[in-house]
Amino acid sequence: MKLHVLILSVGCLLAIASDSKAAMRQYSANADTSHWTLDKTTRLSCELNHEVPYYGDAIFSSTASKNKDLTFNLDMVVRPESYDFAGLQSVPPAWRAGNPVRDISKMQLLKKFDGELDNSIAWEILTELEKGNYPTFYYKDWQNSSDQISVALSSVNFRDMYWAFLQCRDNLLAYSFEDIAFTVMNYKKNSSMLTKSSRKRLEMIGEYLKNDENIESIYISAYSDSYGGRNTNMVLSRKRADTIKRYMEEMGVPSEKVRTDGFGEKRHVEPNDNALGRRKNRRVIIQIARS
């Protein structure tokens, strides 16, 4: 038994001695160089950035959507040359040296890609920063097998920008481009006035368009039911499309990016012999593309 314990102890000492030979290259901002900035403060996206000197940037971001999920991105100037994992720990600052280091998670390193973490881990990193700790990544250097790398996020000057980021995130739209890129809306009978639910939908689209400068094109196609004269219905469908176009222009979309068509009684999606079918045929379709 004593022999087994002795062998185990010797083995542990050899492992420690071996690890001690590896050089630890450390990257972190100090008190003078620790800066946090808030970028892309629109209703579509918010980014909280922290520069790690001589290494890259740590970026927390949220985009407009129902859940407004958080994403963490470790933007490396020199990206991985192999596939591996980086350990992630919460390290207390030097003036809290007696506090324990806590394991948080692992981050997968993909060849030629930046490091990314999803919503739950990204929030955990932020809360550790809020407590004054230094979330730190550890991995074996892919350029030099004898070196270890540590990358720490500094909590110095963090709190004010974090609060601004939270406020920006709270103001994000609760829907994304994918939610409004293709929309079908309906009209009241013999009118170019949208139904109540469709007006709300159009207001959502308008609010999105006010905040997105990358809209490439909008195609509006309008249709009628088969009640009334064919020519009258054609004119009515074109009027419906033009009304939507004017609204888009009021939201800041250049006129040349918006194309309209009125098809009148053509291309029905439901029979016209009942009220429900006619209501579905009185429609406008909006298709939006962005660059």
From TrEMBL:
Limits of the OmpA-like domain: 175-291
Pfam families to which the protein is assigned, alphabetical: MotY_N, OmpA
Stretch forming the signal peptide: 1-22
Keyword Amino-acid biosynthesis: no
Classification via InterPro entries: Bact_OuterMem_StrucFunc (IPR050330), MotY_N (IPR041544), OmpA-like (IPR006665), OmpA-like_sf (IPR036737)
Keywords (A to Z) from UniProt: Membrane, Signal
GO cellular component, one term: membrane
Alphabetized SUPFAM superfamilies for the sequence: OmpA-like
Record's protein name: OmpA-like domain-containing protein
Species this chain originates from: Pseudoalteromonas aurantia
Lineage summary: Bacteria, Pseudomonadati, Pseudomonadota, Gammaproteobacteria, Alteromonadales
